[in-house]
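Progress narrative, Year 2. Work on Mannosyl-oligosaccharide glucosidase from Coemansia spiralis advanced from sequence curation to structure prediction during this period.
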Amino acid sequence: MQIGGLAAVALCALPLILAHGDAVDLNSELLWGTYRPNLYFGTRPRLANSLVSGLMWFGLDGRHWQSIRHSCELGDNLSEYGYSRHNGRDFGEQTMRDNDQGVEIKSTFIKVPGDVGGSWAVRFTGRTLDEGTQGVSLVYYFGLEGNGTMSTMVDDSMARVRGRTPELGKFSIRVEPAQSNQYPVVPKDFSNIGGIRTDGSRINGVGLKVPKTEVWRAKDIFQDVLLDSARTRARAMSEHTKGASQFPGSLLFGLDNAGLRKKGTNMFFVQMNVQGEFAFDVIYECADKTSHIDSVAIDAIASNRRKEFDARFEASFSLREKGFSKAQIEMARNALSSLIGGIGYFHGSGLVSSKPKPEFGAEGESEAELGKPYSLFATTPSRPFFPRGFLWDEGFHQLVLRQWDSDLSLEVIRSWFGAMDDNGWIAREQILGDEARSKVPREFQVQYPNFANPPTILFAVEAMAEQQLAHGITARSVDMLQGAMEESVCDEHCLLRGKLEDLAPYTARLLSFFQKSQLGESMDETPSNAGYRWRGRTENHTLTSGLDDYPRASVPSTGELHVDLYSWVAYMVRLNAELTGTGDAELALHLEMLDKIHWNEQEKMYCDVSTGVREDYDELEDEDSGVERVFVCHRGYVSLFPMLLGLVSPDSDKLGHILDMIEDPEELWTEFGVRSLSKRDEYYGQGENYWRGPIWININYLILSSLHRNYMSAEGPYQGQARSIYTRLRENLMSNVFEQYQSSRFFWEQYNPEDGSGQRTHPFTGWTTLIVLVMSEKY
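Result:
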């Protein structure tokens, strides 16, 4: 995103090395993780059809059992949840506060290295929030989605599992309640009931055999078991008390130790009913005895990892050094950690159409079919509402993640490129498997091979190229290093160059996909005059652009050309030229045509283009069709894209007009950030009002990034204006996001342009976490 680009970084075209179904590198640090971000807490390895686990809970009063907490849901109304620290490898902690169910739970996750991913443990601590309630039921479960065996048992002190899978080998699991746990008091009338333990048993469990494809439905399966048990217990208690109709929840909603030690068990639920303060540990150990985890050591390990995290966070972002308060640093730390805690591993088939989707009422749409199963390692925008991979979002996520852990970021990027087909297409929304599809309305599930999405994932590739350039690493200098420097130094630099060589073919293929699939219609015989058009347009939405309901031409047509899409293509052309050292002439042509097609001199802005009939057209007298290009101008995010992607020269008067638009309060400027659509636009705040006024952090970040990288440091007539806008906008964004976080304890999908309040989905710990980079000024 830098004017003038990088110095050419010569790369050889290596064979494409990523494909669906590539074997996972079973390293100790990244095999196991909290890779089920759709759950309040869950673990799994980066293996298809393997061992998964998760937490559930519900209050023991009234009908809380009908609202068991498991997957993150907006309707659960938790007042707080999200990671306060997560390093992405071997440590993560979060707090979940559920006022409706009357409980606060903290999870602390650690790992230790060993064979086949090593061992891990999670310590849950917490308390019930109201002494007047009967307490809360805590449930932890394990399930085998594929081949393997599990042997389960429960005694008074713990629950145990011994198992084996082809990929993980032998493993053992312990679930250990703390000795200090308190249990709900049982009324005297309900003591000594035959078949029901009324002595405050610490732990119970049930083993089941369920279809492997149904393991993800753990909550539904548990709820059925719980209901059957409750009916049996209710009859026994009614007989014992001679007809009582109100029963203690701790007795009614308890599991009986059943199905234990049975062959074929592939699901194991462990339950603890508690009151007051409580704690329990879940410990998974691989067969490697050197990676044993002792319960006594968990707190000490976590304490060390916590200190390491805080020191590394300051070293990475320097927020204390920059003078931010403890509360502001906590917010930034939580933002980064929740983004990392939203990393997931997904495997399955997606619904894909074999043919492009017809446009504007044309017939011929093909039936969607489940594609070949594959895996994706990705971050997620929002754990309750968007718990899956989104291509448009991912690039912004990686801008944050790479500043913390570039290797972890590269794993995500490589996984996304592994989802690319031979034509360069990547499905914009990754809905893999039944569990993912259960969260998505049917009409949005099918992915079409002619639907593109903004290629933001290339931001991270560009950043890697800049990092290489900062080290002065080119093909020639690497050869020199190999002969003149110590091997350890060369290894570091050669690895960096090698990563780019791996990725370069994918960037070229992605560009080719855009240039072929999104090409617009030319008004003459000049192909370059065709421009580009987002496929997937409807009357009110252009979902493929990422800007959903942002106003476009009032009547959709194949004659449209979209300025944001042309900007993305020009950006890719520039990046490809930087990576290969060729293509400067093509870039110059694209920049020339961007202005020729989309700059409206009368409105002094970049606009979409559509087609219309000339006002003076006479059907009887004129020989031509009378069709001409007409501008479709809506001041807002779309009209900013040439500047956002650094395609406007610092000395161009076009830049001056764009900056004037940004800082005009009657157009885009607010004291909370830059709004998405001009206040003067007829569509401002109308309809769905998704991208028609609200403030989005990702676009505001791009404004700041482009000002900082391209215009503040470049001498020209608008340098001072660029610096002024940057300083004021940065302060507005930081102040408002912090204020909204302090009042709600959440990050939000978007912010209201009138009062700055957070709105729509929360917690939104995807691109809103770019606020960390805004604070640290890392662009």
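The first helix runs from residue 218 to 241. The two ends are 10 Å apart (CA to CA).
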